[in-house]
Amino acid sequence: MKKLLASTILTASIFGFAGSASAAEDCGTMTISAMNWASAEVLASIDEFILDKGYGCDASLVPGDTMPTFASMTEKGQPDVAPEMWVNQFRDQIDAAVKDGRVVYGAESLTDGGEEGWWIPTYFAEAHPEIKTIQDAMDHPELFPSSEDPSKGAVYNCPSGWGCQITTTQFFKAYEGEKKGFVLVDTGSGAGLDGSIAKAYENKQPWLGYYWAPTAVLGKYDMTKLGFDTTFDEAEWKRCTSVADCPDPKINAWTKSEVFTMVTPKVAESSSGAAEYLKTRGWSNDIVNKLLAWKEDKQANGEDTAMHFLESQPDVWTKWVPADVAEKVKAAL
């Protein structure tokens, strides 16, 4: 909390003069990192269009990923904007760079944060109101029969090679899943995990397993996240929950994944209006989930999806900008 407060004060000091300035100023060039996952790709395209058409910036997208983008921003001052930076995994490094004045916190991109946990279909949750937490589900393997062996319950794991595979496996061990009659299903890939949810929905069958937001799947299928049976314990997370070979995990909880826009100090120097936009703009998981579901259904790219959002949801994005900027963006659409 002290780190977050310090970061907030620094952000306020750099962004403080942004006020109500809009598109009248000369914004100059601005590079935006288009991260290689769907929600970040779409948000980058939205920022590019609004900064270009609304604020007169010469905005362009550059390919990026979390750590390479952060390193480039802090060492080279480029790109100028990282719209969706998931900061939990290296918060200390980010806060150190903010303290040194190399980067600045902008808006919280996901206002309710990224979500991780174990989920069940909402139709199943409504049929079984007694299943409210992970422990409730793990007490009833008979409600989640495995397709391979119906005498066992099934918990669908995170894909192989992903960090969440380790934490999900440790959660399964902490809840004594095998002893209680469950098997941990290896889904093989993100597509395999998505497919297991789609198949369950098509047949209105039970499903229990790991998932996260924002994603197209949670925009397409109504899922209910199970409650945790404890609060997040950071020390236990570092000791065992996130360590693959730890033999004795304890029951833990996922914490909210904080997702921020990161910018270089140059942004505020170039355009107070653009700086104000980048410290204001943010959206919820519900909005992003549904937008990503549209993207997947239409097989659209990030730019097409950004245009669809700007055209169909002005009630959301016009709150991010002054009225004169909003009119310029609408005219460009």
Structural class: alpha/beta
Number of helices: 16
Radius of gyration: 22 Å
N-to-C CA distance: 41 Å
Overall mean confidence score, pLDDT: 91
| Strand percent estimate | 15-25%
CATH topology of the largest domain: D-Maltodextrin-Binding Protein, domain 2
Q: Order of strands in the sheet with the most strands?
A: 3-10-4
CATH homology-level superfamily of the largest domain: Periplasmic binding protein-like II
β-strand number:
10
CATH class of the largest domain: Alpha Beta
Give the biggest beta sheet. Answer: 3 strands, antiparallel
Percent of residues in helical segments? 40-55%
Offer a few descriptive terms.
single chain; 10 strands; D-Maltodextrin-Binding Protein, domain 2; ABC_Gly_betaine_transp_sub-bd; globular; three-stranded antiparallel beta sheet; disordered N terminus; 333 residues; transmembrane transporter activity; ABC transporter substrate-binding protein; 2 domains; signal
Structural description of this entry:
By secondary structure, this protein is α/β, with parallel strands linked by helices. The chain is 46% helix and 16% strand. It has two domains: 2-113 and 257-332, 3-Layer(aba) Sandwich (D-Maltodextrin-Binding Protein, domain 2); 115-241, Glycine betaine-binding periplasmic protein, domain 2 (D-Maltodextrin-Binding Protein, domain 2, 3-Layer(aba) Sandwich), CATH 3.40.190. It has 16 helices and ten strands. Strands 3-10-4 form a three-stranded antiparallel beta sheet, with helices on both faces. Strands 8-5-9 form a three-stranded antiparallel beta sheet. Strands 1-2 form a two-stranded parallel ribbon. Helix 2 links the parallel strand 1 (29-35) and strand 2. The longest helix has 18 residues, at 38-55. It starts with a helix and ends with a helix. Keywords: Signal. This is ABC transporter substrate-binding protein. GO terms for molecular function: transmembrane transporter activity. InterPro entries: ABC_Gly_betaine_transp_sub-bd.
